[in-house]
Structures are given as structure tokens and as C-alpha cells.
Amino acid sequence: MIQARALPRIPEVRPGDDLAALLTAAAATLVEPFPRGAVLVVAHKVVSKAEGRLVALDDVTPSPRAEELARDLGKDPRHVEVVLSETAEIVRAERGVLICRTHHGFVCANAGVDASNAGEGAVVLLPRDPDGSARRLRAALPGHPAVVIADSFGRAWRHGQVDVAIGIAGLRPLEDWRGRHDAHGRELHATWIAVADQIAAAADLARGGKDAGEPAVLLSGLDRWTTRDDGPGAAALLRPPAEDLFA
Fold first, then answer.
1. For residues 166 and 173, is the Cβ–Cβ distance under 8 A?
2. Pairwise CA distance, residues 111 & 85, whole Å
3. Are 200 and 150 in contact (CB under 8 A)?
4. Which residues lie below 8 Å from residue 127, measured CB to CB, with a gap of 6+?
């Protein structure tokens, strides 16, 4: 049985906070804080805040390129300038939407730069190295549970957003069924399950909502996917640009 429970009473995270200590204290309220096969899913914003990945817009001077994009898209040019600083490539810029490929290789809106829950006049960036953040967090937690750092991404052909894994430690992010057979003996050629993304999405359902102050969810019953070592991280989920049919 797979179970998911949001950790209670995690305070507002600020730059420099010991996030592992805050999560450990919250988990201590559970009967079994970090059972074998546990996966702790953490919203990227608390990781980013603890790492100081916040930018005050009043400190940003927009470039001419940011000013131009802001006019076309109806956005704050300072916000756009921060997006550009996190962008390796602009994939689309139209209809008020700025889709970017980040320096990490993620393709997402605004290069992951977001003003929600960032504080007045500030924006929060993605962690500089999400896999590294996940590994450090895992090493600092009692029992060293698997860690997934999650963010919400849109999907090109569907409405709405879904939480996905942007940083992973101690978990096999993919389960490859290609070459296996289905229940009728037919060989599978395309079935490659994004386990870490499904775990991130399941964790999001266990929260009270984006305004509930529940940035971490503990899932149990996932032993078959957890690993002793840190594993390849979320980098294994990234499709190389040459294979991107929609860019």
C-alpha cells in the first residue's frame, strides 16, 4: 500500500534556514517519521528559499531585450529580466506566455521564476542544482529517505499543471518496460514510466493546497523504487533537445 501524508507545522522558510532540521522536526510528530522505502517530496520553493534563491524586483534593471519582451507579453520587465538570467533558450514567446529552456535543461514557463509565495516585490528561482540539493537534504535527514524536489509544470497538450520531479536522490526516476511483454504476450516498445514524476504528482494531492503551508509530503510503500545510492537524479528524465519534437 502506498500512503502519502503532508508534514505538519513547517514554519515559513527563510534564506539560511536549516531545511533538514525543520523537516526532521515536522516528521517527528509522526508515529514512524522516515520508514524504510519512504520518499520525502519537498516543494522546490522552500528549498530555493533556504538556499537564498530570491530576487527583489526593485534591485533588477531590465535590459532592452527584457523591455521588448515585456511589452509584447504584458509582463513586468524586471520579472522578465530575471527569467532571462535563468534561461538558456527561449522556446516560445507569444500570447502572454514565455516558455524557456533553463540552464538545468527544464522546459517550463518563465524558466521556473515565480512570484507566488515569494514575498512582496520578490520572485523565487529554481535551485541552482536541484539534484545536488536533493542529495544534500537526503544526507542530512535521519534514516536518509529518498528525496524528490518538485515543481508544477504545464503540459503542451493539456490544461492545468502537474507537479514533476526536478531534483531526486535515492530513487530510480524511471522504470523501463521496453522489451517486456503485456498481459497478452505483446512486446512493449514505448512503455517507459516516469516514476519520480508520478510520485511528485501524488504528493501534491496529499497537500491541503498551494496556500496550506504544507511544502513537504512523506510517502511510504515505495520500496521497489528506492535505492541505497543517490542514483542519476532528475537529469535522467530530461529529453535531449535533439529529441524534442515540439520545440
1. no
2. 9
3. yes
4. 44, 47, 48, 51, 53, 133, 149, 166, 167
At 160-216, the pLDDT tens digits run 999 999 999 999 999 988 888 888 888 888 888 999 999 999 999 999 877 778 999
**Domains observed in the chain:** 1-53+126-238 (3.30.1330.100), 54-125 (3.90.1660.10)
What's the gap between Cα 195 and its chain centre? 14
pLDDT in tens, 202-241: 999 999 877 778 999 999 999 999 999 999 999 999 998 8
| 212 grid coordinates | 496550506
What secondary structure does DSSP assign to 29-82, as a single string?
TSSSSS-TT-EEEEEHHHHHHHTT-EEEGGG----HHHHHHHHHHT--HHHHHH
Instruction: Identify the DSSP state of 203.
Output: H
Write down the residue that cell numbers 533558450 correspond to. Answer: 89
pTM: 0.94
